[in-house]
UniProtKB/TrEMBL annotation, chains A, B:
Listed EC numbers: 3.1.1.96
Protein name per UniProt: D-aminoacyl-tRNA deacylase
InterPro entries documented for this protein: Daa-tRNA_deacyls_DTD, DTD-like_sf
Domain of life: Eukaryota
Cell compartment(s), UniProt: Cytoplasm
């Protein structure tokens, strides 16, 4: 496994993107998908285009008619949340993170992932016309998050 | 795999427990752990005590001093959310749920899981004294959820 991603649908979400000691700033989205991302040991940049292609095209967003389409096709917003804890493995009463990528490599892959999502949204006419956005958390921060859902409709996708 | 569980820490959370057409009623907790549960095909009641033992004792709750203890030891509340979508597997642009348990068996295991969590909380003096609670969603419902976190601190545990 090179990466583990969790998807939750939201009506709105707000994530703090500043460090605890700074004045709070937030990344906010209205209706869309939360994408929690964790890269594992050995992951390289090759995996990122495949991840973005899958995540932006998998049909998990509900239309007003109750059908499911991709986030690009709805279109809806995305909020990307770095979430290293997703790579943890329970051992006895403790969680271990031996399979997680190192901080510098993880930060670089995360930046590449965010940039590619932003590019795909910018190239998609439907997204541009609808004004939907890509927002993201700050790698290494505590991810202070509020969300409001009409069903988190939680999915896990491993790469 | 018999079950997949996702854990998120929250400062507060509110889950609708009535059907859409009824007057809305909510299960609410203050600080604690959200436990999203999905049972897979072939799961039996034997797995439930092991799941509850692991989930209530794994050290994922942060104390005011920044240490990590179990939800029973903090102690904090839990909100159990049935989340069948967690068992989905991406195939092309679609999610498939071939590995999920049937509805009747899933409902029975979910009820057993909730009952055992409630029993463990009721037997734990620290939980009783602190007045922490077990709340849960209605199996088969759309899980309309709001949550506020100081870091969702998301973990996956498979059984």
């Amino acid at each position: 496994m090179a990466a583990r991603v969790l998807l939750q649908q939201c009506l709105s979400a707000r994530l703090q993107v500043t460090e605890a000691e700074e004045a709070a700033e937030y990344a906010e989205i209205q209706r869309g998908t939360l994408i929690y991302v964790c890269f594992c040991k050995g992951a390289t940049g090759d995996i990122v285009p495949k991840m973005v292609n899958t995540l932006l095209n998998v049909k998990l967003c509900e239309t007003n008619e109750g059908n499911y389409v991709s986030v690009l096709d709805l279109p809806a917003n995305i909020l990307i949340i770095p979430q290293a804890t997703l790579g943890g493995k329970a051992k006895g009463r403790n969680m271990q993170y031996h399979y997680n990528i190192g901080k510098e490599n993880g930060k670089a892959l995360y930046a590449q992932f965010v940039a590619l999502c932003e590019k795909e949204f910018a190239l998609n006419c439907r997204c541009v016309e609808a004004g939907v956005v890509v927002r993201h958390g700050t790698y290494g921060n505590r991810q202070v998050l509020q969300m409001d859902t009409n069903g988190p409709y939680t999915h896990l996708i491993e790469f």
